[in-house]
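In the current project phase, our protein records have gained a structure token line. A sample record follows, to show the layout:
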Amino acid sequence: MTAMADHPALNPPRGRSDATPPRTPAAAAATPTTAAEARLTRLHELHSKQLLNYVVKLTLGDRRLAEDILQETFVRAWRHLSKNGDTDLDAFRPWLYTVARRLVVDMLRSRRSRPSEVMMDDLTRLSVTEDTIGDLVSARAVREALLRLRPDQRTVLIELYFHGRTPSEVAERLNVPVGTIKSRAHYAKNALRTHLHQ
């Protein structure tokens, strides 16, 4: 029992000046725990800003996507550094740029292979499909109602609304006063409305 009580892990030295103070969880998380993590921290300090600018250009200004790619690039660098401890950090820059560029290319290829994603905030902006059957039925009903009008009323409506002429142009073409054209148009629209609602 005395052997356990004398164990250094169970009885840390007290009052010694060379003892390190306990670290906070935040300080422990910020301090690299392995050589690979220390090297990655140094690599990040050396190249992260320039690499981010490069990836932002590759992604045509999409900063969020560029940050995601930068993060994945450094994850892959960490894996590489964990396996290859003898990697020269100064010569590692081309490797980082190549990995980042390949990640952008892979992302573009995956987007091309998937259907495009559409996000609509306002569904009223969606185009309404054409109702060709309904249009044909409406056109036929208007045609039949027009044929039921008097010829002078039909002519005025066709000139005004089908050909897009002004009342004065129609009056000149038909050689009648402008007031007569306006009157005929008024009575023709009322008669057309009546025939359409029957």
In short: The radius of gyration is 41 Å.
